[in-house]
Amino acid sequence: MNQRSYLDYNATAPLRAEVHDAVIEALALYGNPSSVHAEGRAARAAIEAARVQVARLVGARPEDVIFTSGGTEANALALAAQAGEAWHCYMSAVEHPSVLSGGRFYRETTTTVPVTADGVVALDALASELEKHRPGGWRPLVSLMAANNETGAIQPVAEAAKIVHEAGGLLHSDAVQAAGRVPLDISALDADMLSLSAHKIGGPKGVGALVLREGVSVEPLLKGGGQERRRRAGTENVAGIVGFGIAAELAAADLAKVLEIAKLCDELEAGALAIAPDAAVLSARVPRLPNTTCLAVPGAKAETLVIGLDLAGVSVSSGSACSSGKVEASHVLRAMGVAPELAQGAIRVSLGFATSNTDIQAFLRAFGELIKRLKQSRKVAA
Ligand code: PLP
């Protein structure tokens, strides 16, 4: 079989070989981590070692890491209305659907904050929205992702946190895409809660974490046993958590290679723009994840490009993976006000730890062929 070029890391990253081996080994740890006997203690020790590894990735304390079934559950847990107070939830218009669904918040207690044409949250709009509610005595809970999954645009989390804290609120940041791609530190971000997902950093699917700042508490979504310090009931996914821990450690080490990824991504963008000079790189004017490029080709259909690239052995996405299959522009591009003709031709190319120059060249060859065909079909139609 010909080698394929996988350029869809924001949908999911390949499982790292070291993670694969650690997960297989951990499957043999059959004890219940809550049991006091030797088998239980062995499983418990494996979980606690992983907790330290995950905490290190974001500069948190291990006891503040709550393992969940993934980024979606971590977001839902963060947005489970905190007990004992009246909260109002604010979220940027470009959040992942698992945030936009609002957790346990009702529509009336949820406000969407707009983003600029570059896909970055409008901080002045956030400040004035918070100001509006202040007299009502509501406490704000603000959810602002660390980086967007479609455009890679990095959000001003620390600046937003300052505004939110001045208003007496809490800030949650969905860091699922930023983790392992840019350095992350919960204190530097000034965030109260951070969501992580193992499969975006080369770990297994179905495991993630909500990481809390020291002193922050959450209302459990799942009640029952006393696992995760009574914050998330259910017997732990021991092997998944072990894999997450190894992936977190490797992802932290890989941050040293971020410039190499950025260089490959720059080459891809420059090459693509040379092939299709009328194409646009979305969020090009703002800081972005070094691995992500959202390329919009006017007059093209993203689905046609994705399928054409797939047939040539190159994997990319149109819009976010969760919404792929939908023909209309993604909610992210709509929130940015991208013209529909441009948005419908937007593909997301995302690189990662195993990407090489060969993959970039494979993309450019296949993209070049597709654009040539597009131009020919335009000539025929004219
Ligand atoms: N948040 C962001 C920004 C994402 O990109 C995703 C996955 O695409 C999620 C949350 C959901 O994570 P999971 O797939 O682990 O539920």
Overview of this protein structure:
The protein has 382 residues and is of the alpha/beta class. The chain is 39% helix and 13% strand. It has 14 helices and twelve strands. The strands form three sheets. A seven-stranded mixed sheet has the order 2-8-7-6-5-3-4, with helices on both faces. The protein has a three-stranded antiparallel sheet with strand order 9-10-12. The protein has a two-stranded parallel ribbon with strand order 1-11. Helix 6 links the parallel strand 5 and strand 6. Helix 2 runs parallel beside helix 9 and helix 5 packs parallel to helix 6. It is globular, with a radius of gyration of 21 Å. The chain starts with a strand and ends with a helix. About 1% of the residues have low confidence. The structure holds pyridoxal-5'-phosphate. Pyridoxal-5'-phosphate (PLP) binds next to helix 3.
Short structural description:
This protein has 382 residues and is an alpha/beta fold. The protein has helices at 17-26, 38-57, 71-78, 97-100, 123-133, 157-166, 186-189, 227-230, 238-254, 258-275, 302-311, 331-335, 340-343, 357-381, and strands at 5-6, 65-68, 87-92, 110-113, 139-143, 170-174, 193-197, 208-212, 280-281, 292-296, 314-315, 346-350.
